[in-house]
Amino acid sequence: MAIEAEEFGTLADGRSVGLFTLENAAGVRVRIASYGGAIVSFEVPDRDGRLGDVALGFDDLAGYVAGDGYLGALIGRYGNRIAGARFALDGVDYALAANDGVNHLHGGRVGFDKVVWDAAPRATAAGPALELTYDSKHGEEGYPGNLSVRVVYTLTHDSALQIDYLATTDRATVINLTNHAYWNLAGHAAGTILDHQVMLAAAKFAVAGEGLIPTGELRDVAGTPFDFRTATPLGARIDHDDEQLRTGRGYDHSFVVDRAAPPGAAAGPLRRAARVREPGSGRVLEVFTTEPAIQLYSGNFLDGARGKGGATYARRTGFCLETQHYPDSPNQPGFPSTVLAPGERYQSTTVYKLLVE
Predict the structure, then answer these.
(1) What total number of domains does the chain contain?
(2) Nearest by Cα to 160 from 353, 290, 356, 357
(3) Which residues are catalytic?
(4) Is the backbone peptide bond immediately before 345 cis, with ω within 30 degrees of 0?
(5) Whole-angstrom distance, CA of residue 74 vs CA of residue 40
(6) Cα–Cα distance between 147 and 143 in angstroms, integer?
(7) Can you give the CATH number for the domain in which 296 is found?
(8) Neighbouring residues of 127: CB distance < 8 A, sequence distance ≥ 6
(9) pLDDT of residue 25 exceeding 90
(10) Host domain of residue 309
(11) How many Cα atoms occupy the beta-carbon half-sphere of 355 within 13 Å?
(12) Closest C-alpha among 56, 16, 35, 75 to residue 291
């Protein structure tokens, strides 16, 4: 296994950004930038052993600085949306940056995807790793508390990318960290992802209202286009005449991860939330998480950005599976709490496992 570091570029203020390559004995490689903690590429074999890059991204730092699609980036302090860009905590009202109409999205105008993280390569028993740290100051994007964040990416011996999130605060705040990788298992430049066969371990999803803000209802997926409990092509029902699909312009919804372990699975905090198979290459992505929800996003707002190697990332050429708490939890008393208090430790793990069949 190996860890290589190189310069990815320099920001306008003179700060250098690093690019780190993690490689395991199987030849699987993942590249991660210290800017936004972005997954720049993920090279894995297909059923014939040919390596292909399955993560959408940019060739250089400029693409990430200019881009607004959160490609591969770490998201915080709060992944997904907060209604009206405000919330109340302990009797105090907090106004956040409104960067999605009147709402707050993915941490604000300068979220964790737009900061330079301190990066330290690590050799671990599980595989090569990259430790990223960032101190988010009190008042940043409107959030209370000085928040210390640590994210560790580990490329395991069995070609999984494990992401461990940890954080502490000096005053009560809200937090919901995730990663916004866009996947195309046929290859990042292969075009549509609508033939990918998706399975979600989710019997309910969060109904979205105006601005994709949850209404508070967790609806049964049975009998709806949101039922992915058995493997179904992503595009099979995406354009059905359904009010929720019209709201999201496709899938852009939070699914409640079933908490019961699947048959034959070992007990533990990690649950398999999703499984996606691309028939042509035989590549399979499995997602395991400790989080209560997973956001399925079908790349509805990709707008033709120029990606790696001149690729065009048009609508629905990449999908996201963002493990997280429900959107707008700070304003939804019926949702699990996302409050982090002094003396507590935020901890979350997600594993993206790549295999072939």
Answers:
(1) 1
(2) 353
(3) 180, 322
(4) no
(5) 12
(6) 9
(7) 2.70.98.10
(8) 1, 22, 24, 154, 155, 156, 157
(9) yes
(10) 2-356
(11) 10
(12) 75
